[in-house]
Amino acid sequence: MKNAKKLVAMLLVLAMVLSLGACGNNASNGSSASSQTSTTSDSDDSSTAEEGNTAEPGEFKLPIVDEPVTLTYFNADDTNAAIITNDWNDNEFYQEMERRTGVHLEFETVSSADYQTNFNLMIASGKLADLIYVGASYYAEGVDAAIDDGYFLDLTDKVEEYMPNYNAIRTSDIQYELLSTTDSGRLGAVYELRQSKQGPWLGLWIRQDWLDDLGLDTPVTFDDYHEALTAFKEEKGATAPLILNFSGSDGEFGTMSGGLNVLNSWQLDETGKVNFGPYMDAWKEYVTIMHQWFEEGLIDPDFRATDERTADMAKVVTGASGLFAALYTMPSVYEASSDDPNMNLAPVNPPVKNEGDEIHIRLRDSYTSGNTAISADCENWEVAMRWLDYLYTEEGALLANYGVEGDTFEFDENGDPVFTDKILKNENGWTMTQTVASYLCPSAGIANWSDWTRELAGVSEKDQACYDVWGQADDAWRLPSSVSLTQDESTERAALYADISTTVKEQTAQFISGALDIESNWDAYIASLESSGIERAIEITQAAYDRYLGRVQE
After folding, report:
1. Does 191 share its domain with 207?
2. Is 69 in the same domain as 6?
3. Does a cis peptide bond (omega within 30 degrees of 0) precede residue 164?
């Protein structure tokens, strides 16, 4: 099976290379430590493991090896860290981990933009790194298949013994369990688990100063937004009043369509059944409104090329736009970069049809942001598991999230870790995100017991206010991220979705721009989705959702 998979991967890579050679590469990129109780296990599955530390499960005797051990690690670069260094071994967190554990990491770092291609190349080569970041997210046929095909180590019967701290946290919350376990009950990767769930970190921002100047209230309905955008165009000279992130943040998170309870993805409908947003009646209503606004010059004319999660800096800071989607950390950056001293950005929710309508679509609360798989070829898999488990102890989590006491953090009067000036007022002039990526475990570094709230140390109270605004909507109609497909389901749906997504992206753009008349072509659009297998794809997803509900109820 492994050889067959290698052949398939090689063919996929060859196709990618040929495609890139013909068309060019247009890929784009898509964050208080707690003490945990350790558990023990009677498992004796250690016949192939290297002799390591003799500490009892749940205890940590440092270093974890008697002799230095080197593990290879395949991971993606970090945009912030890459500005400063290209070598993760320059990062102080990894340096301190080596001092404490006796384990050295040899990094195989690839570009984030080309991660999938490089991941496929690694699979095709048969030369797997010991640790593979977000491997569970990039193996196309799913985690079970990655185990069965001989690429990922099956951790199911090993985790209690060799990762008792991780396992204690993993089993403490149903969401953690669902995220970290396949439908078949297996563990094929170690997941980053958040100490507290992160709320919606992306949404709509509006020029509050413009609203104030124009005597307009915060918009709520589509009519309100239409009035505001028209005024932005006519009175403020905005040439792209609304930056519509067509297939990026808007499509994925429903930043404009969410008020109609529809998004460009799999979702639940009002009956609680699985549906596909662009196949629903509400999608027609959404594109009809967007077409009207486009015709009136209220939408960025370049919307079809906008896929990023964060709005174009130039358009925002020059006053070309007054409404856009962006990360919660960005408004202060925009305001500081603008020549307009009066720029004042405020978070808003997507428009609804009628005031008082409930919104059931937004960016979901996040319990995790990544995972680390251990290669089935890893000779020192026991060492790898214990090394990762250290990051789920109180001591290891503190190191990952805050660094070394007395250097990068101190405990305040409440016993909470707070950053020192080395982080907050870095002498190199680095931004907060660059500093964190250089001294601590980067947000996309390795699976750990993460405290995402550390990010808030460099975020203004004003920017943080968006959590309260965006959190007014619920995410009840979003398909839970823990819904997982079987290998066969994943393969079948992926084949169907290739045509489905192309149809949606192309024809939605044409509907909005007016290249296709909505009324005369809508039935043909729906027929195209049906001929591409949308009903079967929904059926597959429904089956996976039903299994998810069964797991929740167990």
Report:
1. no
2. yes
3. no
The CA distances from residue 506 to 2, 164, 167, 499, in Å, are 37, 49, 45, 11
Q: How far apart, in whole angstroms, are the C-alpha atoms of residue 325 and residue 509? A: 18
> Residues 40-55: what's their mean pLDDT?
36
User: Which residue segment(s) compose the domain that 335 sits in?
Assistant: 202-362+474-553
Overall domain count for the chain: 2
**Once rounded to an integer, what is the mean pLDDT over residues 488-500?**
92
Please give the residue that has the higher pLDDT: either 15 or 239. Answer: 239
Predicted confidence band of residue 461 (pLDDT cuts 50, 70, 90): confident
Long-range contacts of 93-98 (CB under 8 A, 24+ apart): 93/399, 93/400, 93/403, 93/439, 93/440, 93/441, 93/445, 96/399, 96/403, 96/404, 97/387, 97/390, 97/399
Q: Has residue 458 been placed in a domain?
A: no
| Burial zone of 226 (CB within 10 Å; 0-12 exposed, 13-18 middle, 19+ buried) | middle
Q: Which two tokens stand for residue 525?
A: 């659009």
Q: Does residue 206 share a domain with residue 58?
A: no
CATH number, domain at 86?
Answer: 3.40.190.10
Minimal CA–CA distance to 504: which of 536, 481, 530, 484? 530
**Quick check: is 459 in a domain?**
no
Compute the Cα dihedral for 521, 527, 531, 535 and give only its sign.
Answer: positive
Place of tokens 């499509």: 251
Do 341 and 482 sit in the same domain of this protein?
yes
CB contact at 8 A, 376 and 153: yes
User: What SS3 string covers 143-206?
Assistant: HHHHHHCCCECCCCCCHHHHCHHHHHHHCCCHHHHHHHCCCCCCCCCEECEECCCECCCEEEEE
Of 328, 304, 363, which is closest to residue 506 (Cα–Cα)?
304
Confidence of residue 302 (pLDDT cuts 50, 70, 90): confident
107 and 161: one domain? yes
pLDDT of 205-254, one tens digit each?
999 999 999 999 999 999 999 999 999 999 999 999 999 876 544 455 67
> How is residue 397 written in tokens?
């989590």
Select from 285, 219, 259, 183 the least CA-distant residue to 508: 285
User: Could you give the angle at the alpha carbon of 436 between the alpha carbons of 412 and 370, nearest 5°?
Assistant: 105
Instruction: Return the pLDDT at 80.
Output: 61
- Alpha-carbon distance of 434 to 148, in angstroms, equals 39
Partners of residue 118 on adjacent β-strands: none
- Residue bearing tokens 């690839």: 110
Q: Which of 113, 147, 107 is nearest to 131 (CA)?
A: 107
**Amino acid at the residue 541:** T
pLDDT in tens, 354-408: 999 999 998 877 788 789 999 999 999 999 999 999 999 999 999 999 999 999 9
